[in-house]
Amino acid sequence: MDWLMQPDTTIEKFLVMLFAIALFALVMAAVLVLVDRPSLPRWVAAGGYLGPALLLIVMGLLIPAFMTIRNSLYNNSLSEFVGLENYVTIFTQDLFLTVLRNTFLWVLLVPLLSTALGLVYAVLVDRTRFEKFAKTLIFLPMAISMVGASIIWKFVYEYKATGIPQTGLLNQILVWMGLEPQQFLLNAPINTFYLIIVMVWIQTGFAMTVLSAAIKAIPDETIEAANVDGATGMRLFWQITVPSVRSAIIVVLTTIAMATLKAFDIVRTMTGGQFDTSIVANEFYTQTFGRQAQGIGAALAVLLFVLVMPLIVYNVRQMRISEGER
């Protein structure tokens, strides 16, 4: 049964996948056969249907969470209890302060820029003849994986020394303008902003899609009444459109902020966290698996969880408020 626990070949991995599917089907069949009976008490049916999900939550979420919190209180080899020392290290050492600064910039700029660009774009193309085509263009980056988008932009930022034909789009443009090519990804702290651009490029399509749907939900009577009162252009945008889609804007902002906090692929693919570009998610991976610093890595994971939780709670509250207003 070694192949089940540690599959090496393609065939073994395929068999593991089939085994997992068969096991899932077997569990569901057992639940339906044993629980779905009118003669049984309601709590038995509820427990039978919720049991597998609760078991997965406990095994896959709660237990790992408690283990991570525990590990964050031990040294890097997990052999000695050090209390909050790992957290003190994170908030005092220059390396981790740079990581926290970069993470703050990501969480501040990506949601704001993506939402602003998505909102403006949605308003500009709303009810135009080329609306579908324009929306498809801006949404396309959402269909690309984070790694794929990172590789594309890494080619855009590619640097070759002066005198050598440039393969990077931006540096080729600089050469055509008579300027010197630049090493966009090497020079801190500006290189962090070049990475942020990639995330904005990806998330703008999501923001545009959600906000466009919210804009179309604005009653025509509201727009017509505003036009009669003389509200056009920017006045119509700020006094009618933005207040009407406020709840959608909040959802988009918080959703993109959560995705940004967990961003890993872009930094890992484009710089590997070098040149002062690392963020919390990437540094957690680097410390845990690269430098075998289990304690610091666990502390970074806990910090990431603490940062994400308020956004999740706020997002859920806003969605409930929005549903209540409907």
- Structural class of the secondary structure composition? mainly alpha
**Main pleated sheet:** none
- Tell me how many strands there are: 0
**What distance lies between the first and last C-alpha atoms, to the nearest angstrom?**
55 Å
Count of separate DSSP helical elements: 15
**Helix percentage:** over 70%
The whole-angstrom Rg is: 25 Å
Series of secondary-structure elements, N-terminal to C-terminal: HHHHHHHHHHHHHHH
Poorly predicted regions are none
Oligomer type: single chain
Global mean pLDDT: 86
Strand content: under 5%
Shape assignment? globular
Features:
single chain, 326 residues, mainly alpha, 15 helices
Describe this structure in words.
The protein is mainly alpha-helical and 326 residues long. The chain has 15 helices and no strands. Helix 12 runs antiparallel to helix 15. The longest helix has 32 residues. The radius of gyration is 25 Å and the shape is globular. The N and C termini lie far apart (55 Å).
Short account of what is shown:
With about 325 residues, the protein is mainly α. The chain has helices at about 1-5, 10-35, 40-70, 85-90, 95-125, 130-140, 145-155, 170-175, 190-215, 220-230, 235-245, 245-260, 265-270, 280-290, 295-325.
Give a topology summary.
Elements: H1 2-5, H2 10-35, H3 42-71, H4 85-90, H5 94-125, H6 131-139, H7 146-156, H8 169-176, H9 190-216, H10 220-228, H11 233-244, H12 246-261, H13 265-270, H14 280-290, H15 294-325
Helix pairs in contact: 2-3, 3-15, 5-9, 5-12, 9-12, 12-15, 14-15
